[in-house]
Amino acid sequence: MGRYRIHVATGAWLFSGSFNRVQLWLVGERGEAELELKLRPARGQVYRVLSPQVEEFEQDVPQDLGPLQFLKLRKHHSLVDDAWFCDRITVQGPGALEEAAFPCYRWVQGGGC
């Protein structure tokens, strides 16, 4: 019941991004919600200093999740099975003054983590 603001940061290293789709679920004390958004973590350019790629989304969730406990990710793969380096995901829930930070700092393969 409310709007969530989500920031997804891909690592700053060469080939940290992916051409594949990533799904995201918010899991709270009172339930979970599969978000409609489909991330496509972009790859950085080869010939420049890389900085983290950050995608920002706002998503309405119809149920009250309560305080967030964790996130779930599922990375799909199509023709290219590449890994994605998820640096961190931050979420600001309805009425919250601060963001909840979910550091990942790992490579995510197809199939989820």
How is the topology of this model organized?
Blueprint lengths: L1 E9 L11 E7 L2 E4 L18 E9 L6 E8 L8 E9 L7 E9 L5
Antiparallel strand pairs: 1-4, 1-6, 2-3, 2-5, 6-7
Explain how this protein is built.
Mean pLDDT is 82; it is low at 45-49. This protein starts with a strand and ends in a 5-residue tail after the last strand. Strand 2 and strand 3 (31-34) form a beta hairpin. The protein contains no helices and seven strands. The radius of gyration is 14 Å and the shape is globular. The protein has strands spanning 2-10, 22-28, 31-34, 53-61, 68-75, 84-92, 100-108. It is mostly beta strands. The protein has one domain (2-108): PLAT/LH2 domain (Lipoxygenase-1), CATH 2.60.60. The strands form two sheets. Strands 4-1-6-7 form a four-stranded antiparallel beta sheet, with no helix packed on it. Strands 3-2-5 form a three-stranded antiparallel beta sheet, with no helix packed on it.
Defining traits:
mainly beta; 4-stranded antiparallel β-sheet; 113 residues; 3-stranded antiparallel β-sheet; Lipoxygenase-1; 0% helix; single chain
- How many H/I helical runs? 0
- First-residue to last-residue Cα separation: 26 Å
The CATH class turns out to be Mainly Beta
Shape: globular
**Which structural class matches the secondary elements?**
mainly beta
Order of helices and strands: EEEEEEE
Mean pLDDT, nearest integer?
82
β-sheet strand percentage = over 45%
Binding site for Ca(2+): 17, 82-83
Pfam family, one: PLAT
Site (Essential for stabilizing binding to COTL1): 107
Protein name: Arachidonate 12-lipoxygenase, 12S-type
